[in-house]
Amino acid sequence: MKAQFFGDIRVDSIREFDFAIEPGWLFPGVTPEDVAEHEHWLGPQLVEPGTRNLKVLSHAYLIRTRHHTILFDTCCGNDKDAPESPWHRLRMPFLENLARVGVLPEQVDFVMCSHLHADHFGWNTRLQNGEWVPTFPNARYLMSKGEFKWWREAIVTGVGVKPHRKQPWTESVLPVVERGLATFVEDDHAVENEMPDELRYMPLHGHTKHHCGLYLRSGQKDAIFSGDAIHHPIQFTRPDWINASYDPAAATQTLRDLIARCIDTSTKLMTAHFTTPTGWVVSEAGQVRFRFDAD
Ligand SMILES: [Zn+2]
């Protein structure tokens, strides 16, 4: 993705890696045959020919305003043990990709995560001399107060979460909190709110209890960073195919509302996992489609 400009705000995609996953891994109950029905409009960029696995991307958004350098979502991270996931012990040049757009880890002012899942907070920390240390030592890590509270209770009690959630929490969330770098905020917390710029968390609940996107406006242009409210363009036709570890019904409603909010408007959708991550939601012959940004 080339740098995108919204008034004075610059947004870059910091790539981590591409992968393809079985439809049922992403959307419980959905089969390759179900996906096959949509192959004609999605094409080989989005559905792997033959297997019908769904192609996705892991990347972060670097947002530079007049005042701050902000990283939204920190992907999976290197060296994280996750044998059940596609991001097991990655060695990806994520920080090199950040440097390529002119930013060193020390220059990041805010880290914002859409939610507290391992593929969105991995680079919160990195392994140094056998210890997980904050990757962005001068940043405030802004976390939804409700999201943090829910996960802390769930990890401690083991209720409502699978056991494999504990290790990423210990490696990627707690080191930041223990060093005093975390700030717990409301789900509509604004980082910029001074005309003509606005950048704030936007509640998109359901995928997790307090999952949030971002709303960005500068001058006449605006965008919604959707986080995991949507994972793959196939969901524009099937918003009921949903990935939610908290409340699938709420997540489905959130996605329907998001589509209704964006369709045929100039609001750009900045997704977390589409292989071409940004574009516009449009109606085409009675169907909901995505007009991908020309890269
Ligand atoms: Zn995700």
Give an overview of the whole structure.
This protein has 295 residues and is α+β, with helices and mostly antiparallel strands. It has a single domain, classed as 4-Layer Sandwich (Metallo-beta-lactamase, Chain A). Helices cover 22% and strands 32% of the residues. It contains 8 helices and 16 strands. It has a 7-stranded mixed β-sheet. Strand 10 and strand 11 form a beta hairpin. It starts with a strand and ends with a strand. The site of zinc ion has 6 residues, from helix 5.
How much beta, percentage-wise? 25-35%
Which structural class do the helices and strands define? Answer: alpha+beta
- What does the radius of gyration come to? 18 Å
The helix content is: 10-25%
Question: How many strands, which pairing sense, and closed or not: the largest β-sheet?
Answer: 7 strands, mixed
Low-confidence stretches: none
Q: Which overall shape is indicated by the principal axes computed on the Cα atoms?
A: globular
- CATH level-1 class: Alpha Beta
CATH superfamily placement: Ribonuclease Z/Hydroxyacylglutathione hydrolase-like
What topology, given as strand order, has the largest sheet? 1-2-3-4-5-8-9
| SSE run | EEHHHEEHEHEEEHHEEEEEHEEE
Note the total helix count.
8
List the domain count as a whole number: 1
Number of strands: 16
Q: Could you tell me the CATH topology label.
A: Metallo-beta-lactamase, Chain A
CA-to-CA gap between the ends? 6 Å
Distinct small-molecule ligands in the complex: zinc ion
